[in-house]
Structure formats: structure tokens, C-alpha cells
Amino acid sequence: MPGAANGTLILIGGDEDKRDARTILRRVVAECGAGEIAVITTASSIPQELGHQYRQAFGDLGARHVHVLDIRHRDEADRPEHLEVVRSSAALFFSGGDQHQLVTILEGTALIRQVRQSFAAGTVVAGTSAGAAAAGEVTIFNGDNQGLIRGAVKHSAGFGFLPGIIVDTHFVERARIYRLAQALAAGLCPRGIGLAEDTALVVRPGGSAEVIGRGVATVLDAASLSHSDASAVPAGGMVSLEGLRLGFLGPGTRFDLEAWAVDDGGSRPSVPAGTSPAAKRGVVQQMRALFGKSKDPGGTHSIRR
């Protein structure tokens, strides 16, 4: 069940602010008490560049020390020095890139076992873009602009930090609602979370979550589907489904992953108190774009950094 571990999980939709207000990265530092942070760049095709960016950003925000683990091959993940960094860090941060590559390299290694042990013991685990997409029970990739075409959406096992949930990122900007909908309709998982860029979901032990950043978190529940032909349509055919339950959560919204419902304490204003005008405009713009055309016309790659 969500929140079974004692650690806080921070899932980021990608392209988070690394230079200005840095709201989300600032929260990562705060959640780990400004302790040591290990940045794992395995998913990225530009690990040195990303490692430098995060070392600078987290360092500027007061992190005690920032380690960068650029693990390219499975055997590297079992090195004692890498395991010691994971054990000693207060936060473990997975960068963006290719989530399938990330899981393929690390799953089954001593390093990911240590990550799970640390998370269970209370260490903060965070991920952006591919790093967030790998956090669910299943990770999906490909299918931008073709999300309801059977066979266009690929999937593999995720790290399972959120059992029963698929996480997708760059969700608004690349119009990925269709591919997540198909994954749920196909029975890969009953529920999904889509995160816009510069938007994060902070998940506490027990499943209480909070949306932070400037965009929208979309929550999808397939439990009430009244129709899905995802298993009957031939490859290349268009999937039809009806009855998918959707929710759109702006910054400041609290959501209970166990109950799959907004936790409003009995009442909640339409726009959270303290939300900046820029964040309010961002929510409106992204809501308008949610069902619009993706910025990425290719749509045949996995989630990028």
C-alpha cells in the first residue's frame, strides 16, 4: 500500500526550477534536514552535466554534501563505496533521463536493495522525470501523441515505491494523459498519477500527499471503468474506454493516496492561500493545455530528462 515505508517520497514532473526560487529542490533539502544528498544519474545521457547542476543547486540551498553516483553498468551498483554513500545520505535523488534504462541497470542490485532499506528506515527518496516515473509499480514509456493506439505504450516493472500506481511525468506539456489512460485500461495498475513540469507530489508515510510547485497533478482511477477494449483491440487499433475517474490537483492540495480522495479537512478554497499569482496562472495554462497538442511531435522516445 502507498506510504508503507517510513521515508518521504518526492515525485517531480521534470524540468524543475534549479536556479531561481527552486521551490521543489528547496523542499527536498528541507525534508532531509539539509543533510547529505546522493544524486543518482543512471537514467541520464548527460550525467556529468546533470550532476554538476544538482551539486550546485543543492549546495546553494544548504545541503551538507552532495554526492553524484554516475552508475552506467549493473556491476558498478554493487561497489562498496556506492553502497556506503546510499547508507550515509539523508536523501536519495534520481535524475531524469530514460526510466527503462534506470530500472534495467539498477533493479536486482545491492544498491537498489539498499535504497529500499534506507527508504523503509526513513530516508527521503526523490526523483524527477524518469526518476519519478520509475517509482511506481509499473513504469511506462513511448506513446506520446499515440497514447490510445494499442502497442504504442511500452511498459516494464518499476521500483515499486508506490504499489498499485503508475507515475507519469511531463504530463501536461507532452499530452500524456492518453498513454496513462491506456496503461490503466489495460490493467497494468488500477491507479495513476500524472505530474506537470516543475510540479511535485510529496508523499508522507501512510499515504498523505501534497502538491507543490507551479503546475497540476492529475490523478486517475480505473476502478470504475464501465468499458475497456484494451485487451481485445489488435495492435495498431484505437483503444476505447469509458468511466475513468479523473482529478486535477493544484499547488497546495492535499490528497490521501489510501482513500484516493482530496483531504480538505472539511473545506478548502478554490485556490490555496499563499499560492503566488504566477503559480495560479501556471495552473490555468496547464489545465487548458492538458488535452491539447503535445509539444513533442516525435512521440516515440521514453521520458527524457
Q: Layout of SSEs?
A:
Blueprint: E1 9-12, H1 23-31, E2 37-40, H2 47-60, E3 66-69, H3 80-88, E4 91-94, H4 99-106, H5 110-121, E5 124-128, H6 130-133, E6 136-141, E7 154-157, E8 162-169, H7 177-185, E9 191-195, E10 199-203, E11 208-213, E12 217-221, E13 227-228, E14 241-242, E15 245-249, E16 254-256, E17 261-262, H8 277-289
Parallel strand pairs: 1-5, 2-3, 2-4, 4-5, 6-8, 8-9
Antiparallel strand pairs: 1-10, 6-7, 9-12, 10-11, 11-16, 12-15, 13-14, 16-17
Question: How would you describe what is shown here?
Answer:
This protein has helices spanning 23-31, 47-60, 80-88, 99-106, 110-121, 130-133, 177-185, 277-289, and strands spanning 9-12, 37-40, 66-69, 91-94, 124-128, 136-141, 154-157, 162-169, 191-195, 199-203, 208-213, 217-221, 227-228, 241-242, 245-249, 254-256, 261-262. It is α/β, with parallel strands linked by helices and 305 residues long. The protein has a single domain (9-289), classed as Rossmann fold. Helix 3 (80-88) runs parallel beside helix 5 (110-121). It is globular. The model is unreliable at 294-305 (pLDDT under 50).
Please, how many domains? 1
Determine and state the CATH class.
Answer: Alpha Beta
Shape: globular
Q: Give the ordered list of helices and strands.
A: EHEHEHEHHEHEEEHEEEEEEEEEH
N- and C-termini, Cα separation? 28 Å
Question: What oligomeric arrangement do these chains adopt?
Answer: single chain
Number of helices: 8
* Spatial strand arrangement across the major sheet: 3-2-4-5-1-10-11-16-17
Mean pLDDT metric: 90
CATH architecture: 3-Layer(aba) Sandwich
SS-derived structural category: alpha/beta
DSSP summary, beta strand count: 17
- Tell me roughly what share of residues is in helical segments: 25-40%
State Rg.
18 Å
Low-confidence stretches: 294-305
CATH superfamily: Class I glutamine amidotransferase (GATase) domain
